[in-house]
């Protein structure tokens, strides 16, 4: 029996960490849909056309550790505004969401476009300043040089692109539970999300 959990939100709000923890807790499969766009972005940086890269995407490409670089994140945001790219990746995501045993998908349009009928929808958010600090800590922890002011500017630019795009703009679904993690620890945010899912099962 399928049970879909849609977790959306802007960059560095904590949705990935929360989604993985929720999936582990309930024994659900997990898909970071942002990796689909990062894989397409990586292919574009390597010379492929964005639409053909999305149509020919090999699931094995999602395992590439180079998908986590700032350069690829920026490329992902740029290809994600292309309607044909989003359409090409739609079936992959919907098939994953309908798999037996339950699934957690995190992204930016899961509850609004990919799985509007998901049993649970959570929109994870936090202030731009807190998200920028989290992203900075992540980058520095991976040995990537970065400065707070630059990261904050990139977070705000990404928010603007994601929220203003014509195809599936970033916004909470009408029936999503908004989870603001600005003042929450990771454990607190995970506990709250787990409670939300448990209440709907």
CATH architecture: 3-Layer(aba) Sandwich
Range of helix content:
40-55%
Task: Please trace the helix and strand order, writing H or E for each element.
Answer: EHEHHHHEHEHHEH
Largest sheet: 5 strands, parallel
Question: According to CATH, what is the class?
Answer: Alpha Beta
Head-to-tail CA distance between termini: 12 Å
- Please name the CATH topology: Rossmann fold
Number of helices: 9
Question: Mean pLDDT score, rounded?
Answer: 94
Radius of gyration: 16 Å
Number of beta-strand segments: 5
Sequence stretches where pLDDT stays below 50 over 5 or more residues = none
Q: Report the sheet-strand fraction.
A: 5-15%
Overall number of domains: 1
Largest beta sheet: strand ordering: 2-3-1-4-5
Characterize the overall form. globular
Report the structural category.
alpha/beta
Topology:
Blueprint (H helix, E strand, L loop, with lengths): L3 E5 L6 H12 L2 E4 L1 H12 L4 H6 L14 H10 L3 H15 L5 E5 L2 H5 L5 E6 L2 H14 L6 H17 L12 E4 L5 H15 L1
Parallel strand pairs: 1-3, 1-4, 2-3, 4-5
Helix pairs in contact: 1-9, 2-4, 7-8
Task: Summarize, please.
The protein is of the alpha/beta class and 201 residues long. Helices cover 53% and strands 12% of the residues. Helix 1 crosses helix 9 (186-200), helix 2 packs across helix 4 (70-79) and helix 7 crosses helix 8 (148-164).
């Amino acid at each position: 029996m399928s049970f879909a959990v849609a977790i959306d939100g802007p960059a560095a709000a904590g949705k990935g960490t929360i989604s993985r923890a929720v999936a582990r807790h309930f024994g659900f499969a997990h898909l970071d849909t942002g990796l689909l766009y990062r894989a397409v972005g990586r292919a574009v940086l390597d010379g492929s056309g964005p639409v053909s890269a999305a149509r020919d995407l090999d699931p094995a490409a999602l395992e590439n550790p180079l998908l986590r670089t700032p350069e690829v994140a920026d490329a992902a945001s740029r290809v994600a505004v292309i309607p044909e790219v989003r359409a090409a990746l739609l079936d992959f995501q919907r098939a994953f969401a309908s798999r037996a045993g339950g699934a957690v998908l995190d992204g930016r349009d899961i509850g609004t476009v990919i799985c509007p009928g998901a049993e649970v929808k959570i929109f994870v958010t936090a202030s731009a300043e807190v998200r920028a600090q989290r992203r900075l800590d992540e980058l520095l922890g991976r040995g990537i040089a970065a400065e707070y002011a630059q990261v904050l500017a990139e977070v705000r630019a990404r928010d603007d692109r994601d929220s203003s795009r014509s195809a599936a703009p970033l916004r909470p679904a009408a029936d999503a539970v908004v989870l603001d993690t600005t003042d929450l620890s990771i454990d607190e945010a995970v506990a709250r999300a787990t409670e939300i899912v448990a209440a709907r099962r």
